[in-house]
User: What shape does this take?
Amino acid sequence: MSSSTLSEGRKQFIVDGVTQDCRADGRRCIDFRRFQIETGIVSNTNGSARLRQYGTDVLVGIKAEIGQPKQERSNTGHLEFYVDCSSYNTTEIDGHIGDFTTQLTKSLERIYDSENVLDLKSLTIIAGEQVWVLYIDAVVLECCGNLLDCISIAVKAALYNTRIPGVSVNDEEGVLELEISDDPNDEKKLSIDKVPVIVSCNKIGHRYVVDATQEEECCSSGRLLIAVNDRNNICSLQKSGTGSLDPSTIFEMIETARQAAVPLNQELLQTLKREERSNNDKCGFFAN
Amino acid sequence: MRKDYQLPKFYDRLVCRTGAVSQAVGSAYIELRNTKIICAVYGPREVAKKQEFNIQATVACELKFATFSCRRRRRHIQDSQEKEYSQIIVQALQPVVRLDKYPKSQIDIFITVLQNDGSVLGGAITAASVALADSGIEIFDVAIGCCLRQIGDLSLIDPTYLEEEGRLNNEEEDEIVTNANVTIALLPSLNQVSALIMNGELDVDSTQRIIKDCLEGCIRIYPVVRECLTKSLEEKMSRN
Amino acid sequence: MAAEVGNPVIPGQRLGSIDQFSAGLGTYVRQRHIYASLVGYKDIISQAGQLPKIQIKTGNVSCNLPTIGKVVTAKVLNVNPRFCRVLIICIGTTPLKEPFKGTIRKEDIRATEKDKVDMYNCFKPGDAVLAEVISLGDPRSYYLSTAKNELGVIFAKSTAGHPMVPISWTEMQCPHTEKIELRKVAGIKYWTDS
Assistant: This one.
């Protein structure tokens, strides 16, 4: 929501509520909103996931294609991100929408496209020439605050759901030919134990909240993005927003985010495993 | 590659001059070992784009690597990495400028990296702050940027390009080798952090430690910046 | 007591406490202390009956923005029946490095008989006018007014291309062709005295 559409009285109400650990919807400062996650809903992708929360709907699709490796990292595969916000009401974003999506895309790339997160070496087919490139595209259908966190959870679920087909390399008279197998049993799963989720901590007044709604984001004077993985290690930090933060506040925010991320990661993994086992027939997006 | 953890003396690290671009309202030139960055500030001037009426000033930044500055030739159009750096620098400098003093105007910061040998973001933030101070635009404090790279047990302040890109790989399966880098912008007098980017995988204690080390790196640059601004003030006064 | 020229300071340095001094140009107050916000020399000015004021003396020209009440010099860009657009090129006596856009609305041209104003008899494109800033206006331009005796056209060229001489509050004459053209003339002291 554009900050100019929120009245001063409403802003004060939110700040006072946060100070007393009771937010506008009744949550505590470190509570996440409940969300629903489904995987494997788009058949044309190698992996997909959809996250639904009150007011938020994000769809992530992963397509794996064979391509050239990046110049600096010729022995590993890589990830390419794109966030599409066009369905999301553009008047609600402060500033140019291109800058907004660039910021999201670059943050995701910086956090996820790294050896610390995924075993990118396993995506190599022919070292230096042909690698698997994972194109991760997020479509934001609607959003009620905390967009980057939601996209990161959906990306993690989609990566869990991703199956990469097996490739055999045939050397015929010096020309290397790649054959992609159609056998569903010959598919590779990706290991997601080092994949982090992003927890954004917003500073409102003198306290900080996790999983901010749109209104709370308008009142925040500084935001710290913290990426925490299953091993409870910090993968990335980024300060965004126009205010400045005290170093001690930063350390407290890191600790708060880590505590909030522990149940989040555990629940997410359990839900994903449960979904994989049950193998429900997907019957369309808006059917249920 | 440096084998020892050494926080080098600040005079060896940073060379800083103002007045590099005579046409600009304020400008600065920074050399951080082999990295060379030049920054020009224009404004406060009319808001160029058709934006909403803003009772405060807007800060806009454009960072560009010169096409010959990196190991591989860069494109002449701003790519996504440069756009991201520009946005980070805007976020680092917005808390610093007294925006309410210049209603309905825009302050433009143009940064060109002439030679990239690592620590670009930290150097660019420092260059932009020095240029703002030189321009006579009122600011709360001079923001100082600093980069730190953690490879295994080594902490390297102001890493060179090779040190930034290099990685230590796991020699054994179970060993976790930390590869992390962090860039911080600090406002020394106010003791506030206006930009923080960290990448890698670290536990909470190591994260706190590298942030503290990087903050100390920023504090050590402060005297150099202060001396540069004081010297340029004396030169300006003696010219008038 | 004369003001003392003190040490060079940079933004963020503490200058004094608000119990003993008051904040002047180039400083700001935070948590009961005065800090510098410009690069310059610390200057303490005594004031009768008040706390001495700390300000910063700089070598720079201070940043100039059109603020309400300032008299500016502007060049007329285009004229239309409701308002005319101008380009602000000087604020007071300081020329600007980069101009700002301004608008003079029909009702702000004169103080009296505002509804009987004909825009084309007041300004023409290319004229230099003295005007006062009355509002920050809209995102595209500042709002200016010439509704005072000393404000209005100070320089204009005739249709023949020669600089004209003012002959009354509403008329200017070309010295070569002796043709009279209508303008809203500024009553600058030099002209009104003679």
